[in-house]
């Protein structure tokens, strides 16, 4: 074939691929203001406090206050072609995704917007929620904050000198492209890891999100900024303190409590090994399990509130990380806005003793072993 003919055929095929849009905006989207869920259903739900809270997980006061905080970051400018989606509707779309975990296409049909528009809104608004709330509801604890947390753990869970409960939660995501087995975890799913430090009142104090799902809880801790600060002694923890009526044991450090997947460190206590350790060791495991259950209860509250944790998130790891961080600060935001929120009753920790999980490496120092022994002696006395 002549080269000119080949060029003409290629040009013809290229022009055929550039199909013009049959419509600029679909008719169903054009009727968003008349029939969209935000402009019809949400307006009606504002008349019913209970149903509004069931729909968004936030009551009307909390929704409006959150909207005031994020408006500067999520407001878009109208153009000559179309009107921008309002900040209130953008926040509603994001909260509805976090509350249900429904697909972007399902939410797009309900709100009468494009599904790619929903994807962009969820990503942007989740990041805006984190940026606006983190300094207010999850600031980095100071030395006085650690003392206050320790006093609450001692009062509610009878574990003195405890400044937090640590655990990791795996958030399922779709297998990302070209990542091999990095996100594939021991449960046979693809995930990212949420590592959290929780206080005695079920609030997140420090979180680290986004580590590969294949990493163990101990490995996630070692790779996190919190783990490095704990190892380096730069967390501003209070000085060692003598436990009540235990002057003979000397000053003991302030510690975090964790399960068997974490290493034993001077400031990080894990249970003694074995399902039924004898005597004083079992007593220590019992006390530690009661305090450690706080973080597991917090994860349970988080997943019950934000149902996206019951789904496989069909988003990129970066967007999944943004959604997880948004739900964590929203969890603290809700508990701060509702000071009368009921607290869980202290548990006996027996089930945790019988539910031994994967054990992590335990290359503990002699100092860490001695600290755990002193706590065991204190509890058994």
UniProtKB/TrEMBL annotation:
UniProt keywords, alphabetically: Hydrolase, Metal-binding, Nuclease, Nucleus
Pfam families: DDE_Tnp_4 (PF13359)
Domain (DDE Tnp4): residue spans on this chain: 166-332
Localisation: Nucleus
GO cellular-component term (any): nucleus
InterPro entries: HARBI1-like, HARBI1_dom
Highest taxon, organism lineage: Eukaryota
Regions that span the bilayer: none
Cofactor: a divalent metal cation
Single GO MF descriptor: metal ion binding
PANTHER family: PTHR22930, SIMILAR TO ENSANGP00000010363 (PTHR22930:SF279)
The family this protein is said to belong to: Belongs to the HARBI1 family.
Official protein name in the record: Protein ALP1-like
Origin species: Merluccius polli
């Amino acid at each position: 074939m002549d080269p000119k003919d080949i060029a003409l055929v290629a040009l013809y095929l290229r022009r055929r691929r550039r199909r013009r849009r049959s419509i600029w905006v679909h008719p169903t989207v054009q009727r968003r203001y008349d029939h969209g869920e935000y402009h019809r259903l949400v307006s009606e739900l504002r008349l019913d406090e209970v149903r509004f809270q069931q729909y968004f997980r936030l009551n009307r006061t909390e929704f409006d206050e959150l909207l005031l905080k994020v408006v500067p970051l999520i407001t878009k400018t109208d153009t000559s072609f179309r009107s921008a989606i309002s900040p209130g509707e953008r926040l509603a779309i994001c909260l509805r995704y976090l509350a249900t975990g429904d697909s972007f296409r399902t939410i797009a049909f309900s709100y009468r917007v494009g599904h790619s528009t929903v994807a962009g809104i969820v990503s942007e608004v989740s990041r805006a929620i984190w940026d606006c709330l983190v300094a207010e509801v999850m600031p980095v604890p100071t030395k006085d904050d650690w003392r206050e947390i320790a006093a609450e753990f001692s009062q509610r869970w009878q574990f003195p000198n405890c400044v937090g409960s640590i655990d990791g939660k795996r958030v399922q995501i779709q297998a990302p492209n070209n990542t091999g087995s990095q996100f594939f975890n021991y449960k046979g799913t693809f995930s990212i890891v949420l590592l959290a430090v929780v206080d005695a009142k079920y609030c997140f104090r420090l979180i680290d999100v986004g580590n590969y799902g294949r990493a163990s809880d101990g490995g996630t801790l070692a790779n996190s900024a919190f783990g490095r600060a704990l190892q380096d002694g730069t967390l501003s923890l209070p000085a060692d303190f003598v436990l009540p009526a235990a002057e003979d044991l000397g000053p003991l450090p302030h510690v975090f409590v964790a399960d068997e997947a974490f290493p034993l460190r001077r400031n990080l206590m894990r249970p003694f090994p074995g399902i039924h350790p004898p005597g004083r060791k079992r007593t220590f495991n019992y006390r530690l399990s009661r305090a450690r259950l706080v973080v597991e209860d917090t994860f349970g509250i988080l997943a019950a509130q934000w149902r996206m944790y019951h789904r496989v998130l069909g988003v990129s790891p970066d967007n999944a990380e943004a959604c997880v961080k948004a739900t964590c600060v929203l969890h603290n935001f809700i508990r701060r806005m509702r000071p009368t929120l009921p607290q869980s009753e202290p548990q006996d920790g027996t089930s945790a003793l019988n539910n031994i999980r994967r054990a992590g490496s335990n290359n503990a120092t002699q100092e860490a072993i001695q600290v755990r022994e002193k706590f065991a002696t204190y509890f058994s006395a």
